[in-house]
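Minutes, project check-in
Item: structure for the 237-residue chain
Input as provided by the requester:
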Amino acid sequence: MDEAERLGFLAYSKLPVFERCVEAALTVVREALTLGPAYVAVSWGKDSTTLLHLVQQINPRVAAIFWTAPHQQLLNDYAGMARRYCARYPHTQYFEIDVEGDRVPDKVAFTRPWEQYPVAFVGIRAQENRRTRGNALARHGLIHQYKVGERAGSWRVAPLGWWDWRAVWAYTVLHDLPYLASYDDTSAVGRDLSRTCNLVAKNPSGATQGRLALLRRQSPEYWNQLVERMPWIASLS
């Protein structure tokens, strides 16, 4: 991020609209933390890193869980990101769960974290996908209790649900949070659309405007290794 962009986000962080976003999110966090033991689901993308720091303002020792897999480091320097964050905030209660698989929801279901932590903070935002995430947040709210199924009685909390991308970057700059270097490659898409994730999702967007496109362009040797592990990825390009 160049200095002009950094100063722009810093200026945005001084606006009342940003301050209202942060206070509203902290209100959600405070309420959710009264519901039971909680964890923050981290992918080490910009949203979940912002969320973790935000929740730690109220509970510095909240559990932070990252579902990883053997191919993770081919996609991004998640291990380095975790080290940088935990070095900056040594009180972080950080846990990695190494599980084979493609989709984080499947990994979560397999490991059943709600049995120990019935309150799950997740960094989803409506702006990322109005049809799915936006509709779900509008229907269920930022604090939602599961009524049926194996998660019945547990909670999903999305304090950043109504934030836009500028608020996330403003928070990141304001608090000088570390972030993945891949976000600074905006040759394919602007910073408003740049995303990273800790899974290789089976959808075309990753190959055209996400982590797969970035990997293929910047590190073809890693791309080839990934295709060897998961041949279906090649069909997305």
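Outcome recorded: The two ends are 28 Å apart (CA to CA).
No further action items on this chain.
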